[in-house]
Amino acid sequence: MTLDELTDAATIPATEPAPPEIGHLLTQGSGLYVQSETKPDLAFETQEIPGVPGMWELLDSPGDEELLTAIPGKEQTEVEPTSAEPALPAIDGTQGYRPPWVPHEFLPRLVPFQTAEHPGRVYMEPKAVEAERLTYPWRTNGLVITNGAPAGSGVLVGPNLMLTASHVAPWGSSPWSMEFVPGFRQGNRPFGSSFVSEYRGFRVAAGDVTGYDYVVCRLYNPLGRGLGWMGSVAFGAESEYYRRRYTSTGYPSSFQGRPAVEFNMAIVDIDNDDPGLELEFSRDVYQLGPGWSGGPLWLPNEGPLVAGTVTGQEKDVFDPTRFVISAGFGMVNLVKFGLANWPV
């Protein structure tokens, strides 16, 4: 569909109410945690906070218990970026899923806003409905928090799978944590969140722009069961990429915690970077801020299907600076691995 056709497409309504257990799945919030092989017998000391009557600070436990503000992850699996098979398929990918209790909105209403950082510039964000909640597939996008700090963007690609950029992941950190907050908006967590138990992908450092800057993450909390997820896709022929128009979503820093969206994006160049591809676009999008890293590039009317993740920007010798997406069969293979090996 063209952008005009997406605008005119009617919302596909929900067909049944959500089961009660789905509501509980999507209201899990952040909190304090204790790591223990058995049920801990907690005995924390407290003290009243000076100047704040009625508020108490938890102090260190006299035992071995330690309060954590994040659920730590376990495994980090690095995959070597070897070349793809000589005979590539014409197309490969995975299927998305929209729960029957979630409406599908092809093009959401957009609302303008301005920030103190850029007072002369007007931004647009998808309009949230019913208690600040976005519809499908917009609700499958979210903020990624790494080791306690906002680090990038991600998208659900399975019942318990989140896809993001490799350089957003905490490679080499110990202990480490990653948290995915779908539909995040200025501190609001309308669908709860989940920490990551493990991730797998090609190790890419921040600032390195590659065609394989992606990792697939296993979530402790299977958010996709309640929210749905996008499929994934890769094409063997560059012409299949060029002939399509794309949408990208994420959380750039200039949006100050709001979800951003760019429509009708056209590829201007493709570089092979086995086992991935660098899809190049005009520079404008990434100027909004680095928080867009890991956000999906996706096809809104084919699935919807994720075709790549935001990696950064680069300038070739004779070309202008361009916005770059990591794509290709390397990404699809990671998602397929997660679906096959990390059951809910």
Describe this structure in words.
By secondary structure, this protein is mostly beta strands. It has helices at residues 3-8, 20-25, 224-227, 238-242, 329-341; strands at residues 33-34, 46-48, 56-58, 67-68, 75-78, 91-94, 110-113, 123-126, 141-146, 149-158, 161-164, 178-182, 194-201, 215-219, 231-235, 246-250, 260-265, 269-273, 276-281, 296-299, 305-314, 322-327. The protein has five helices and 22 strands. Strands 6, 15, 16, 17, 18, 19, 20, 21 and 22 form a nine-stranded mixed sheet that branches. The model has no long low-confidence stretch (mean pLDDT 87).
Structural class: mainly beta
Class of the largest domain in CATH? Mainly Beta
| Main pleated sheet | 9 strands, mixed
Distance between the termini: 34 Å
Q: Are there runs of 5+ residues with pLDDT below 50, and where?
A: none
Count of all domains: 2
CATH architecture of the largest domain: Beta Barrel
DSSP helical segment count: 5
Given the C-alpha coordinates, what overall shape results? globular
- Give the name of the CATH superfamily of the largest domain: Trypsin-like serine proteases
Radius of gyration computed on alpha carbons? 21 Å
CATH topology of the largest domain: Thrombin, subunit H
What is the ordering of alpha helices and beta strands? HHEEEEEEEEEEEEEEHEHEEEEEEEH
